TrEMBL record:
Entry annotated with the keyword DNA-binding: yes
The keyword Repeat is assigned to this record: no
Keywords: DNA-binding, Transcription, Transcription regulation
GO function terms (MF aspect): DNA-binding transcription factor activity; transcription cis-regulatory region binding
GO process terms (BP): negative regulation of DNA-templated transcription
Signal sequence, renumbered to the chain: none
Name of the protein in question: TetR family transcriptional regulator
């Protein structure tokens, strides 16, 4: 299930996204029975358990001991709710980053990766269109602050693709057994037997594939993320050094 941001009323959604801290200044009269933040936290809890497929205004209301109708005073529809939850779930995702650009970018990527794995339903929200909320924007801003000015656009895109893609692979691997009713061991055992019968020369035809050492799936996926991140940062470091060398050459007296 892929959900696109901004499917609700844009004026109401953006007003709620950029509301004051909490739910606004204190008002006279009885204290509200609910708050927007409480609804979002309940919605996040529902989505953490059941994904966005299991999210409904009714399910959120039940978690709060309220009816679905009681929520509509605060959040118009499920469409706005998803945008608000998405932004709220990014709150505090990136803490203080180290000083050096490489250490800062690595810490940023690891922190966002962990946030996605804590709330896998975030990956069901397409990255094609931003929610345009303050917490989502803070995640991007912290990355831009950490990166050198060289090749920022390409690096930002590559980093988000790596972090989201890796987290999605791990999340899908973790959910596969419960979603399909078949464990990884059962799945591979059944197919290995059939492959041996149907393609007896598989090892000869695909020797490099067969020579790859087996690994525990979750750990292998984490290793792929950290290894891919290192390669990306190595490439960026090389590019930065190259650009610095080019600048020095242009500024040297011999080049004039």
């Amino acid at each position: 299930m892929v959900v696109y941001a901004g499917q609700g009323d844009p004026e109401r959604t953006l007003a709620l996204l950029w509301r004051s801290a909490g739910d606004g200044p204190p008002r006279r009269g009885p204290k509200p029975a609910l708050t927007v933040d409480a609804i979002l936290e309940a919605g996040i809890a529902v989505a953490d358990e059941s994904g966005l497929d299991g999210l409904s205004m009714r399910a959120v209301g039940e978690r709060l001991g309220k009816t679905a109708m009681a929520l509509y005073t605060y959040v118009p529809t499920k469409r706005e709710l998803i945008d608000l939850m998405y932004d709220h779930a990014h709150k505090g995702a990136i803490g203080d980053l180290p000083g050096g650009w490489r250490e800062a970018v690595e810490a940023w990527a690891v922190a966002l990766h962990e946030r996605y794995l804590r709330h896998p339903w975030l990956l069901q929200v397409s990255h094609a269109r931003p929610v345009l909320g303050p917490h989502e924007q803070t995640v991007l801003e912290k990355l831009l602050e950490a990166l050198p000015d060289v090749a920022v656009r390409a690096t930002v895109s590559a980093l988000f693709s790596l972090v989201r893609g890796s987290a999605r692979t791990i999340a899908e691997g973790r959910a596969a057994a419960s979603d399909t009713g078949t464990s990884d061991q059962e799945w591979w055992t059944a197919r290995s037997r059939l492959m041996n019968d149907l393609v007896p020369d598989f090892a000869e035809r695909f020797p490099r594939s067969v020579s790859m050492p087996p690994a525990e799936w979750d750990q292998a996926a984490h290793d792929a993320f950290t290894g891919g991140l290192k390669l990306l940062l190595d490439g960026l470091a090389g590019h930065i050094d190259h650009q610095a060398d080019q600048t020095r050459r242009r500024m040297s007296p011999k080049a004039r």
